[in-house]
Write a structure and sequence with these properties.
The chain is an alpha+beta fold. The protein is built from three helices and five strands. A five-stranded antiparallel β-sheet has the order 1-2-3-5-4, covered by helices on one side. It comes from Pseudomonas salmasensis.
Length: 116
């Protein structure tokens, strides 16, 4: 995601606007309600999941519990893998949360801030 598009996305998150950003075919970051809680979600569609990716994500989440604290992993009704993190987060933390979720999913190549 280009820096300007990412900044627009982050500004919408901070303002509380429901938003989403496609990172790659079948992979997006969006706002997502979980019960009464608003959150930020990385969704990887079933067809975009790599073999064994869900198992690796779950293993990393529990082996590195402090690093990925606040990240919840589940399959949605369409069998997409969802990594969800509650909002609101401290001002400016949304970008770091997205980076952590991409790292957890082994999708850091889609994170422009990882190359800075």
């Amino acid at each position: 995601m280009p820096d300007d598009q990412r900044q627009v996305f982050l500004n919408e998150l901070v303002s509380g606007t429901a938003t989403h950003q496609l990172l790659a075919p079948g992979i997006k970051v969006c706002t997502l309600q979980a019960g009464s809680r608003s959150g930020l979600a990385l969704q990887v569609a079933r067809e975009a999941l790599q073999a064994g990716q869900l198992q690796r994500v779950l293993q990393r989440r529990f082996e590195q519990a402090l690093v990925f604290d606040g990240c919840f992993i589940y399959l949605d009704a369409q069998d997409a893998m969802v990594i969800w993190h509650p909002l609101p987060a401290p001002h400016g933390a949304q970008d770091r949360i997205i980076s952590r979720m991409l790292s957890l999913a082994s999708l850091s190549a889609l994170d422009p801030s990882a190359s800075r």
